[in-house]
Amino acid sequence: MTAPLTPPPPPHEHSAHDEWQPPSAGHVAAAPKDAGQGGQERSGGWYEQDGPGMKTEVREAVVAAVVVALGGLVLGALWWWLAPRVPLVGEVSGDNWVVYLKDTEGEQAVGVDGTFTLLALAFGAVSALVAFLVRRRGGVPLVVALAVGGLLGSLLAWRLGVWLGPAQDVIAHAKDVGKGVTFDAPLKLGAKGALLAWPVSALVLHLGLTALFGPRDPEPYGPAPYGADPYGSAGS
């Protein structure tokens, strides 16, 4: 009596789970490597677009502040040359000399302050434009340099104009020219607020140029492919 023949086992059916094969070691190692390279490339790209380091920016800002401040020499010379003259007259009253304005209703003193203010505004605009053209990225150090350099330049221009102008001792000057002879008053800045015209003008114009024509910050992620869900699928 023979043993019953058992039918052969049916062929193995591969399920969806069986079809999946774990990636080889080479693929596993390659993925982080590629991702790291991409991160380095993106990081390198961002670094190049971010511009120089902070030390370089501070160094450039110091140079810019010095150059802007030295422009005060030109401003002071122009102020002394273009500012209207205030006429004075000396008279003898007893044993003392008295100096008074020849034209009591004249507006020359106001014109002196106005000339300085207009020149300072122009110098502020020029310094801001040059700084923007040289370094379009702007930055906090450069903005501070424009403000500090403009203020120092205004102070330097003020003192230089006073030094180049007529003598400060009006009594001695009146004695030198003689009684009743008209002479120019010392160059004087009555409105000290004009010293802020240069830095304020430079800051406003530079910030405006940077906002309108400066480079834009790069997006951290590239544009999504056409038809892709920018927020990702909820089921994945």
Provide a descriptive summary of the structure in words.
It is a single chain. With 236 residues, the protein is mostly helical. It has a domain at 54-86 and 104-164 and 183-213. 58% of the residues lie in helices and 7% in strands. It has helices spanning 16-19, 25-50, 54-82, 108-134, 140-164, 170-177, 197-213, and strands at residues 87-93, 96-101, 182-184. The chain is elongated and about 80 Å long. Residues 15-19 and 25-50 have low confidence and may be disordered.
* Pattern of helices and strands: HHHEEHHHEH
Strand order of the largest sheet: 2-1-3
Which ranges are low-confidence, i.e. pLDDT below 50, for 5 or more consecutive residues?
Answer: 15-19, 25-50
Fraction in beta strands? 5-15%
Q: Sheet bearing the most strands, described? A: 3 strands, antiparallel
Overall morphology: elongated
Please summarize what this structure is:
With about 240 residues, the chain is mainly α.
Question: Key features?
Answer:
single chain; 236 residues; mainly alpha; three-stranded antiparallel sheet; 7% strand
